[in-house]
What we know:
By secondary structure, the chain is of the alpha/beta class. The protein is built from ten helices and ten strands. The protein has a domain of about 180 residues: P-loop containing nucleotide triphosphate hydrolases (Rossmann fold), CATH 3.40.50.
Amino acid sequence: xxxxxxxxxxxxxxxxxxxxxxxxxxxxxxxxxxxxxxxxxxxxxxxxxxxxxxxxxxxxxxxxxxxxxxxxxxxxxxxxxxxxxxxxxxxxxxxxxxxxxxxxxxxxxxxxxxxxxxxxxxxxxxxxxxxxxxxxxxxxxxxxxxxxxxxxxxxxxxxxxxxxxxxxxxxxxxxxxxxxxxxxxxxxxxxxxxxxxxxxxxxxxxxxxxxxxxxxxxxxxxxxxxxxxxxxxxxxxxxxxxxxxxxxxxxxxxxxxxxxxxxxxxxxxx
Length: 270
């Protein structure tokens, strides 16, 4: 990789269009993703997020426009791009019959890496799965499967990883586990392009956010820049009540207090 490539964005998209018969999904998308950053592509279902990711991963051909990933042209260097990236879809692609460690060792062997066992052990430690390494993946929770899936995507040290709605269907605690795993990726220098329909997910993770709506990027920037698009907030002093998610996570973390019952619950009659 030369100096010019290092200075260029990890992902660059200009004028990408894609239609399925009469349905125009992407209508001229432009975006840049800086190296080593977490970039969130935010949009509702059907906005075109997955279509764009599949084009960047060379699984689909655009109808118009140009794009590059890690300095490689999507249209002419598909093979090189597939060697430089990893793609994690909306559902964890793990083998439930194998253990967590066996899944990682298998992928390391398929990539012809030296000492697959050491590669597996390092990733198990990084994603807090060492204690479950020998267990069959069928016994893993949703969050553990997702973390294993992301760990498998990192084998071979890809320059860019695409995470397509990685927390779909997960409970609040599992979502936080995946968020921690994504932050771990960026801390090690991996560029992450994350698609999501969850506003809080983009807010928690992303260095920059782009909103894809009806096939176009309608706004992009840092969270602080996007907040400036709205009028200044009025300051009001109100009593802050915990959200249901905060209550759930607090109870799961500490366990319910013995003998307590929710307000309005008559409890056990004497």
